[in-house]
Amino acid sequence: MSHRFILEESKQELLASLERRGIEQRVLNAIAQVPRERFVPPALLHRAYEDTSLPIGHGQTISQPYTVAYMTQLLNVEPGHRVLEVGTGSGYQTAILCALGATVWSIERIGELSQQARRVLNSIGYSPTLIVGDGWEGYPQAAPFDRIIVTAAAPEIPMQLARQLAVGGILVVPVGQNDQHMYQLRRVSENEFDVFSSAQRFRFVPFIRAGHDEAASTPRAGN
Ligand code: SAH
User: Ligand 1: distance of its center to the CA of 187 in Å?
Assistant: First the structure.
């Protein structure tokens, strides 16, 4: 019996279930290419192809495969696209974007997660630009982007990020407090955006705004 066989079998089952749920072939191919087992903690290796989110430390999670697939499909990435990701986390979604042929910038506020993601991404042959910092304001240095994806829950549509899209560009972001609907914004002209929101609900860790949310979660005298 080999460990690899077990993982491969569950990976095929996962791909079949994603296909049944309407995920297109191009996205399935990218998911097939990326070894998710490399992005989960060793103790959870055997669960790498369960369709569930898993803890990656620092109170953060690697997103559920279906969620990654659905967001990737809404993002409609083409080879050569300049893509900004906010919330690198484990780096798994980053790898999917690389597998689709995008040039990727990814921002993560927790340095240790970014460093771990870099090690794994480099070891499987991907070299996106990983930035440690607050992604709330996007990454103006490299804007405009063809695509922007936020992998943490935003309280409202982050227009400061939408403004970093090229005309024709697409932003995908989960929006909501306790659970989230997925929003897809398309910049149709300098000042016009089309918006779609999913009926489905998702549950993400919060998109943290430096200075605001951090201060708000720290108890203060008098409160
Ligand atoms: N795509 C990742 C999701 C990780 S969870 C994966 O599947 O592994 C979301 C990540 O967003 C967390 O790692 C969290 O630290 C990060 N995050 C939250 N607010 C942020 C901000 N303002 N700037 C950068 N990263 C942020």
Answer: 24
Contact 83, 77 (CB under 8 A): yes
Residue with the two structure tokens 């993002």: 75
- The finding on whether 60 has its CB within 6 A of some atom of ligand 1 is yes
pLDDT tens for residues 137-172? 999 999 999 999 999 999 999 999 999 999 999 999
Question: Whole-angstrom Cα distance, residue 223 to residue 213?
Answer: 16
How many A from CA of 110 to the centre of ligand 1? 8
Query: Is 63 noted as a catalytic residue in this protein?
Result: yes
Catalytic residue among 53, 63, 90, 106: 63
| Secondary-structure percent of the chain, ordered helix, strand, coil, rounded to 5 | 35, 25, 35
Alpha carbon distance 129, 7 (integer Å) = 29
Domains of the chain, CATH where assigned: 52-222 (3.40.50.150)
In terms of Cα–Cα distance, which of 184, 83, 176 is closest to 138?
A: 83
